[in-house]
């Protein structure tokens, strides 16, 4: 088991046992490490302490849901405004495939793909010269299946394995010390309605939540909550197009293409990252 697998297994364990508030020693034992070594490893790869992650997963997440109630009520007015979202510090730009490009079915387009280990699980990433076109969790769907779907979506394109060409998409997520002024482009194909929904998702501020029905209202189609849900489920780029920020009107998590446990993990990681933008020096170390 490598370090990334240990971290993912530990977060899976904390998600599954959140109600019991497992101690550091219990989580460390689950991945066969000492508490001291596990604490240092977790902080190195996740950027926060296991305790902070567990807080975000449970009590802090509950507070966040309550604090988000006003956002849910106002989402129809705030969608489309990027000022409050740290995601836009990266200048994320969604570029849709044109009708002409769709008709050509990817002819003449070279797509690089690769699989990268992350604290949240292995991610399959594919990029065209115009941006990221696919990102998905390999533990939920095999890399071969994701590659097959990509080939079906871009049947006349040239696919080649090149992890060096796709690594930037993952590093931009987990390395916040990079160039914040660099533009990150997403290159997607979908119906006009799907693309409108994905654009709306990009405007939900990091660490905040929105409901399917309020996204439908924001798009001017208040009766289209089910269609919004289908478009969210068809999101081709996990995390960067943040479908994990969409919940049910009741406050329940709702579904997630990569599994509800993964959705909870991503939400907790994102919230903890947001709250720890200026961590205390001792926050990731055990005092003796």
Automatic annotation (TrEMBL):
It comes from the Bacteria. Its EC number is 2.1.1.63. Keywords: DNA damage, DNA repair, Methyltransferase, Transcription, Transcription regulation, Transferase. The keyword Methyltransferase applies. GO terms for biological process: DNA repair; methylation. Signal peptide: none annotated. It is an enzyme of class 2 (transferase). It catalyses: a 6-O-methyl-2'-deoxyguanosine in DNA + L-cysteinyl-[protein] = S-methyl-L-cysteinyl-[protein] + a 2'-deoxyguanosine in DNA; a 4-O-methyl-thymidine in DNA + L-cysteinyl-[protein] = a thymidine in DNA + S-methyl-L-cysteinyl-[protein]. GO terms for molecular function: DNA-binding transcription factor activity; methylated-DNA-[protein]-cysteine S-methyltransferase activity; sequence-specific DNA binding. Residues 8-105 form the HTH araC/xylS-type domain. It holds the Pfam family DNA_binding_1. CDD domains: ATase. Belongs to the MGMT family. This is methylated-DNA--[protein]-cysteine S-methyltransferase. It comes from Vreelandella subterranea.
């Amino acid at each position: 088991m490598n370090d990334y697998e240990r971290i993912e297994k530990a977060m899976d364990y904390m998600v599954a046992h959140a109600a019991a508030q497992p101690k550091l020693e219990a989580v460390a034992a689950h991945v066969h490490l000492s508490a001291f070594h596990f604490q240092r490893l977790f902080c190195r790869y996740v950027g926060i302490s296991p305790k902070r992650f567990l807080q975000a997963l449970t009590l802090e997440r509950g507070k966040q849901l309550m604090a988000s109630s006003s956002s849910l009520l106002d989402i129809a007015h705030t969608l489309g405004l990027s000022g409050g979202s740290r995601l836009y510090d990266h200048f994320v730009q969604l570029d849709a495939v044109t009708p002409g490009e769709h008709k050509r079915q990817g002819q003449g387009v070279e797509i690089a793909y690769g699989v990268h280990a992350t604290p949240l699980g292995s991610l399959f990433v594919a990029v065209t010269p115009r941006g990221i076109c696919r990102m998905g969790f390999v533990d939920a769907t095999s890399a071969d299946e994701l590659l097959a779907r990509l080939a079906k979506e871009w049947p006349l394109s040239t696919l080649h394995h090149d992890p060096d060409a796709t690594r930037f998409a993952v590093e931009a997520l987990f390395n916040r010390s990079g160039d914040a002024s660099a533009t990150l482009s997403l290159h997607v194909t979908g119906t006009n309605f799907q693309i409108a929904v994905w654009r709306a998702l990009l405007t939900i501020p990091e660490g905040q939540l929105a409901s399917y029905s309020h996204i439908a209202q924001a798009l001017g189609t208040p009766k289209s909550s089910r269609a919004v849900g289908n478009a969210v489920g068809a999101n081709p780029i996990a995390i960067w197009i943040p479908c994990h920020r969409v919940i049910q009107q009741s406050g329940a998590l709702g579904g997630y293409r990569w599994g509800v446990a993964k959705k909870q993990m991503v939400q907790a990681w994102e919230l903890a990252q947001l709250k720890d933008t200026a961590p205390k020096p001792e926050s990731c170390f055990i005092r003796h």
